[in-house]
Amino acid sequence: MLLWSLLVIFAAVTEQADLLTLVAPSSVFEGDSIVLKCQGVENWKIQKMTYHKDNKELSVFKKVSDFLIQSAVLSDSGNYFCSTKGNIFLWDKRSNIVKIKVQGPDGHRRDLMTAGVLWGLFGVLVFIGVALLLYSLFHKISGESSATNEPRGDCRQNPQEFTYSSPIPKMEELQPVYVNANIRTLLENKDSQVIYSSVKKS
């Protein structure tokens, strides 16, 4: 009884340590080769290894081996997995399922066309970005150049162009002009001569 318990525990630990994994491409084109690799187990632990497609046996090996499809056709599309039959006291194992899709020539051309369109759009975007960058740099350089080459003398104002009339009259205008008017000689009074004058403001 104790021996049987130890064997069960050993088998469970071995099953957890040795997990099968099927490595295969998910998409191929017609005419390409397909390689199926069943990993995660050693030869001495198995009696046979089997590859399956859609729950049907494809090939059986007595040791760890790869399965090869030389030239894929559309009918090779399907769900693939591998399994192993263990030796004494070892459990049988089954791998994950990998769905493989085989595309025809039209799909290949379509993928190439899509890739070409994407690359073309990317090239156009790059060209537009470079053009905008060069335009902004050229505009900035031309603006700085025009600001540097502008003559400083133009900033000076011509004093002759800005003449204005002051509301305050000049000193010459305030000078009185004396005009002799109504000069009368008083003959009666010979001792004094009175001259009347009026101030005329020009």
Automatic annotation (TrEMBL):
Residues 23-103 form the Immunoglobulin domain. InterPro entries: Ig-like_dom_sf, Ig-like_fold, Ig_Fc_receptor, Ig_sub. The gene is FCRL2. It comes from the Eukaryota. One of its GO terms (cellular component) is external side of plasma membrane. It comes from Mandrillus leucophaeus. One of its GO terms (molecular function) is transmembrane signaling receptor activity. Keywords: Disulfide bond, Immunoglobulin domain, Membrane, Repeat, Signal, Transmembrane, Transmembrane helix. This is Fc receptor like 2. The keyword Transmembrane applies. GO terms for biological process: cell surface receptor signaling pathway; immune response. Residues 1-16 form the signal peptide. The chain crosses the membrane at residues 117-138.
